[in-house]
Amino acid sequence: MRLRQHGYRIIQVNAAVLEHAWGNMREVRLPGKTVMHLNYPPFRWYYITRNFLYVFARYRTAFPETYALHRRFVVKQALLALVFEPHRRQRLRLMIKGLGDYRAGKLGKLEWPSLPHVAARDRHP
Fold first, then answer.
1. In this structure, what DSSP letter does residue 74 have?
2. Rounded to two decimals, what is the model's pTM?
3. Which ranges in the chain belong to alpha helices (H)?
């Protein structure tokens, strides 16, 4: 977004491969449809919330269509996480902390007294 805002063109290379972990995708069956959600560990929702708010507050007027698309995606995934995943209270607390840190302008590493329920296998490299 920063490059586009400064007049650079983005060139797409279809043969390029980028490996990225999207969490442990899970399927949830709802009446009439099946929904996929990201199933991230609770601490990831701190970063998702804070960074989404930071990036899109900065670029939403320049890229309103991108903002609307990502806002819907993040809100949907957050609601699915709060409804269908364990440790809902911790997820919600970390989302609220992400909101508070965004408002306070605090970026960087999450400082949280303890992050129980975050096993080593849940930490994505």
1. H
2. 0.72
3. 2-5, 42-59, 64-84, 88-103
- State the number of CA atoms in the 13 A half-sphere of 28 facing the CB: 17
> Distance between CA atoms of 79 and 52, rounded to whole angstroms?
15
Asked if residues 56 and 71 have their Cβ atoms less than 8 Å apart, the reply is: yes
Report the SS3 class of residue 28.
Answer: strand
Instruction: Please give the torsion angle defined by the CA atoms of residues 117, 77, 80 and 28, in that order, rounded to the nearest 10 degrees.
Output: -100
Distance between CA atoms of 103 and 107, rounded to whole angstroms?
10
CB 39 within 8 A of CB 81: yes
Per cent of the chain over pLDDT 70 is 88
Chain centroid, CA 53 distance in Å: 10
Q: How far apart are CA 46 and CA 63, in angstroms?
A: 24
Q: Which residues is 26 bridged to in the sheet? A: 37
Residue 45's closest CA among 75, 6, 11?
A: 75
